[in-house]
Design a protein that fits this description.
single chain, mainly beta, Immunoglobulin-like, 4-stranded antiparallel sheet, 40% strand, globular
Length: 265
C-alpha cells in the first residue's frame, strides 16, 4: 500500500489514512494489544498490522477501541472527510433496462449470495499491505460512489472504478492473493473474478470476457488473471474493479497518488 497522506499516533497504535469515505485504513499495534472497529476485533499479522475499510457512507466521526496489554482500554476518535458523489438523472429509459424481469429474480439472488460468501474470507495473508498497481491500462470512465436515477428510481451506487479497454485486453493482479470466486456468466456482472488479499480485503473484477485463473489459485502481483470484456449488463468493453473490506465497499482509486491514472502506469 502506498504511503498515506495522514498519520496519527495514539498510545502504541499507528494508523495510516486517508480518513475519507471509501478509504482503506491500515495500522500497526504493539504485541498484546487488540483493536476493535464497529464491534469487530481486527485480525492482526504477527507484526501487529491490521486493516479496515471506511464505507461509501461512513459517518463523520469513527471510533476505534484499543485494548492495551496492561488490560486498560482506550477509545480513539477520528474525523472522516465526507464526499460529494456524482448523481445523474436519466428519464425516458425503457422499463426493461431499469428493473430486471421477475423470471431472473431467483438467479440474481443466488448469484449475489455466492459473491457475498466469497467476500467473507478472513485469510491471514498480508498482501493488502502491498503497494497496489492498476489491474489494466486505459482511461477512467467511471468512478466510485456515483449513482444514476432512472425514471425517478435510484439505482445502487457504482462501487468501483471503470477502466475502458478493448475486449481481450489483459487484466493483471493489482496485488497478490488467492482466488475465491470465478464465474463467467453472472446476470449483472458477467464474467466475475474475486481475489482475496487477506484480512477481509478483496478485489472484484467484472464484465470479463475471459477468466485465466481458477478458484483456489494463488496469484502474484502482476500475474495475468483475466481479460477485459462487456459481459453481463455492460454497454461496452471495460474493466470494473471493485474492492471490499468484508461488506464495506472501498474505493480502489484512493490507493494511488492523487490524479494517478491507469494509462500512466
Amino acid at each position: 500500500m502506498i504511503a498515506s497522506a495522514f498519520l496519527v499516533q495514539a498510545q502504541a497504535v499507528t494508523l495510516n489514512g486517508p480518513w475519507i469515505q471509501g478509504a482503506m485504513v491500515t495500522g500497526k499495534a504493539s504485541p498484546g494489544e487488540e483493536i476493535i472497529y464497529n464491534g469487530q476485533q481486527l485480525q492482526q499479522t504477527p507484526d501487529g498490522d491490521f486493516v479496515f475499510g471506511l464505507g461509501r457512507n461512513a459517518p463523520a466521526v469513527v471510533e476505534l477501541q484499543v485494548k492495551l496489554a496492561n488490560g486498560s482500554q482506550k477509545t480513539l476518535s477520528f474525523d472522516v472527510t465526507q464526499r460529494q458523489y456524482v448523481t445523474q438523472k436519466i428519464e425516458g429509459v425503457a422499463s426493461k433496462h431499469v428493473t430486471p424481469p421477475k423470471t431472473v429474480s431467483a438467479r440474481i439472488s443466488r448469484e449475489a449470495k455466492a459473491v457475498r460468501q466469497a467476500r467473507t474470507a478472513n485469510d491471514n495473508r498480508s498482501d493488502f499491505l502491498s503497494t497496489f498497481i492498476w489491474p489494466a491500462k486505459g482511461p477512467l470512465t467511471g468512478v466510485y460512489g456515483s449513482q444514476r436515477i432512472y425514471n425517478g428510481v435510484p439505482k445502487s451506487p457504482h462501487y468501483g472504478v471503470d477502466i475502458a479497454g478493448p475486449k481481450g485486453a489483459e487484466v493483471i493482479a493489482p496485488a497478490g492473493g488467492i482466488v475465491t470466486f470465478a464465474d463467467d456468466d453472472l446476470y449483472y456482472s458477467g464474467g466475475t473474478l474475486i481475489v482475496d488479499h487477506g484480512h477481509g480485503i478483496s478485489s472484484t473484477f467484472i464484465h470479463l470476457s475471459q477468466i485465466e485463473v481458477t478458484v483456489g489459485a494463488t496469484v502474484k502481483q502482476g500475474d495475468l488473471i483475466a481479460r477485459i470484456g462487456a459481459s453481463g449488463r455492460a454497454t461496452g468493453p471495460h474493466l470494473d474493479w471493485r474492492m471490499n473490506w468484508f461488506k464495506e465497499r472501498i474505493d480502489p482509486q484512493l490507493l494511488f497518488p492523487k490524479n494517478a491514472k491507469p494509462a500512466l502506469q
